[in-house]
Design a protein that fits this description.
The complex is a heterodimer of chains A (92) and B (268). Chain A is 50% helix and 0% strand. Chain A is mostly helical. Chain A is extended. The model of chain A has no long low-confidence stretch (mean pLDDT 94). Chain B is an alpha/beta fold. In chain B, 42% of the residues lie in helices and 15% in strands. An eight-stranded parallel sheet of chain B has the order 1-2-3-4-5-6-7-8, sandwiched between helices. In chain B, β2, α2 (43-62) and β3 (68-72) form a beta-alpha-beta unit. In chain B, α3 (82-91) packs parallel to α4 (114-129), α4 packs across α5 (144-157) and α7 (198-208) packs across α8. Chain B starts with a strand and ends in a 10-residue tail after the last helix. Classes of the chains: A mainly alpha (92), B alpha/beta (268). Chains A and B meet through α1 and α3 of A and α4, α5 and α7 of B.
Chain lengths: 92, 268
């Protein structure tokens, strides 16, 4: 596999990552300004955000796992077809 | 550049997409059976759909010089109704000898329910009895990790299944190693809003290697990009992959997997 220097990776992807980071920050501000209660997605997202500050590699995998259903028992019945993007927990 | 689109729901696309794909170098397209966006009301609806996949769509693709292959099943999104699934699965064998049918797919799980799992096992049995390749759909978003684990267990539990004849699709960073370690192929789906971006797919290649992996657009009636594979090839170029390595990955790998059935003819 080709190996890029850190400088090359920054040249290729810094602006894109910067834009996405600011978008996430703006989304958090938008939720703050809104009224009413949130739901499990907000809690899950805040938990996953902590991974971004981690010094340890494998952040994408850990963010995905933080938003995933960690159980292994099949559901008694499918609760519809769609997915929410975060696991609501056993109580949902 | 040449590439194979190993997962595209072309019945949902317009002829402009065929023009653009062929212009970009697409040498073959493979279409797994999919949910229509609404539940079909009877097995007859599936019969007509299987006719469309095996007879009509190959002719439409041929008008643009593009070989068209397909996979047959009842999609996991319609697998909660086991009775309907049994009736649909009973229809499939009569289509398996059609020249473009590569195997059974995209089977798998959607919400990881007991009925979906039962229908998955029925599909695995069908594939084993007819010596078919298998293409597996893994669930979306929060359901993917759990669904992938359940699917891998179901495949392992049927001893007739040869792992290298199964492609488990829609892998991401948290599931790709599970799939490859089980001896299967992994598919990375390039979507604008979910699954993998091109940059992330190539991160996976950088860390896992290119063996037993492919990329697809899974273009359908939703938000999706039929040219996602050639766009990702451009991203590979930016990341330092040579034209030969790109060709091996976007053309050679899908051809290598699908050549496990004699139905697949290597594009010229």
């Amino acid at each position: 596999m080709p190996t890029l220097t850190r400088q090359q990776v920054l040249d290729l992807y810094f602006m894109e990552a910067r834009a996405k980071l600011i978008d996430v920050a703006a989304f958090l501000d938008r939720v703050d300004r809104a009224s009413g209660p949130g739901d499990f997605r907000w809690t899950a997202l805040r938990g996953a955000l902590a991974e971004l500050a981690s010094e340890k590699s494998g952040r994408a995998e850990r963010v995905l796992l933080a938003l995933s259903d960690p159980t292994l028992e099949p559901l008694a019945a499918a609760p519809g077809k769609g997915a929410a993007g975060a696991w609501p927990g056993k109580s949902a | 550049m040449r590439y194979i689109e190993p997962h595209g729901h072309m019945v949902s696309r317009v002829t402009d997409d065929y023009v653009n794909m062929v212009t970009a170098g697409c040498a073959a397209v493979c279409e797994p059976a999919f949910w229509a966006g609404f539940d079909r009301s009877s097995p007859d609806g599936f019969f007509d759909y299987f006719k469309q996949l095996t007879e009509y769509e190959p002719k439409r693709a041929a008008k643009f010089g593009l070989p068209h292959y397909c996979w047959l099943c009842i999609n996991p999104k319609e697998s909660e109704d086991v009775r309907l699934a049994e009736e649909v699965i009973a229809l499939i064998p009569q289509f398996l000898n059609a020249p473009g049918v590569l195997g059974i797919g995209e089977i798998g799980l959607n919400k990881n329910s007991r009925n979906e799992l039962k229908v998955l096992e029925m599909h695995i049995d069908l594939a084993a009895r007819h010596d078919q390749l298998i293409l597996v759909h893994t669930p979306h978003l929060e359901d993917k990790w759990k669904g992938t684990k359940l699917i891998l267990d179901a495949l392992k539990n049927d001893r007739r299944v040869k792992p290298e004849r199964v492609i488990v699709d829609h892998v991401e960073e948290h599931t790709v190693k599970l799939v490859l370690d089980a001896g299967h192929w992994g598919g990375m789906t390039l979507y604008p809003e979910s699954k993998c971006t091109a940059a992330r797919a190539i991160d996976i290649l950088d860390t896992m290697g290119t063996d037993r992996l492919w990329m697809n657009s899974a273009c359908d009636w939703g938000v999706s990009v039929p040219l996602a594979v050639p766009y990702a090839a451009l991203e590979m170029r930016k990341r330092g992959y040579t034209p030969g390595q790109i060709d091996q990955f976007v053309f050679g790998n899908p051809a290598r997997f699908m050549s496990q059935t004699a139905k697949f003819k290597m594009p010229e």
